[in-house]
Design goal:
The protein has a six-stranded mixed sheet, with helices on both faces. Strands 1-2-9-8 form a four-stranded mixed sheet, with helices on one face. The N terminus is likely disordered. It is of the alpha/beta class and 375 residues long. The chain is globular, with a radius of gyration of 24 Å.
Amino acid sequence: MTKQTSVKKNQCSRRSSLGAPECPRLLFALFLIALIGMVACKKTPLPAATPSSTAAVAATKSDASATAGAPASDPALPADSAPLPHIDAKRAFEYTREVTAFGARYIGSDNHKKLEHYILDHLKEDHLKGDQVEEDSFIADTVEGKFPVRNIIAKFPGKKDGIIAILGHYDTNYPLRNTGYVGANDGGSSTAILLEFANQLRDHPNESKPGSLGTPGRIRDGYSVWLVWTDGEEAVRQWSDTDSLYGTRHLAEKWEKDGTLKKIKALMVMDMIAPIDLAILRDTNSTPWLEDLIYAAAQRSGYQSHFYVLQGGEEDDHIPFVKRGVACADVISVPYGYNDVFHHTPQDTMDKLSPKSLEIVGNTILETIHLLDQR
């Protein structure tokens, strides 16, 4: 679990009680002291944040240590007058609510199957052609038995040669299946934000929105964008290299064999991205230049305070691709609640989430796609 570290800011306010001065010399001395105090407390612009090792924390799903930090350097970006993208945060939040309403959605469950149909029905509404929606289905042999696993892939073709992949898991924790756990943030928010990305990316012949990445009637100008609802991310007993990430381990191997991995320019994972106190971790298992690009995208919309206050190594759906040399970034907000109190508990419910957090992450990732298109 990630331990939240608090850092105290310098305080300039200080109470003192002074009597009336007894002589002009004392008055002059007090004036000098007051003048010095005013200069010491004057607000000055703070330098850009840099990585620091002053605070250590333990990363979620990982034994790696973590520290407070921000990008070591911002990537040089060309001047850009394009409008900033804007997702429909209220709609994304409603998707999260609808997904959560299914209840526990662990692999092999009826609710899991219902959610699969919910996702596929949404993609049909986006008027995607048959060859733009794929399924990577297989049977996972786990320590709790065999389970069907189904990755769902929606493809939005682009003119440039290459793929930007955005992943998010839709299953919920298996060991917590009988506890009332619904995974509003962990599983719900990632499913929902990808549905909203599909809205923004769709090729809608009768609809065009300012700041949307979709281009009515034609292929998008940049790279192809693939949205992947990943399955079997959660462990069925205890998180380990072999009991976790079932869907992405299978998909990474498949894409390596058929040559898809070589075409991927960047892969980003969305996970637990809707808490009220959004704080995206700088993941040390991710690719530094891609993490920096995401931070630059956040800066363009003024969202940078929600990114990279802490850093640490995460084991998430990006790991099978990282191991194969793909440029990856894990976009995850941890800790979830004070001292990670809501993570993997029945308290992971809708009242802990905010549409504003979905807006911040959604707009930032769409802007990151735009920046990747310019590379």
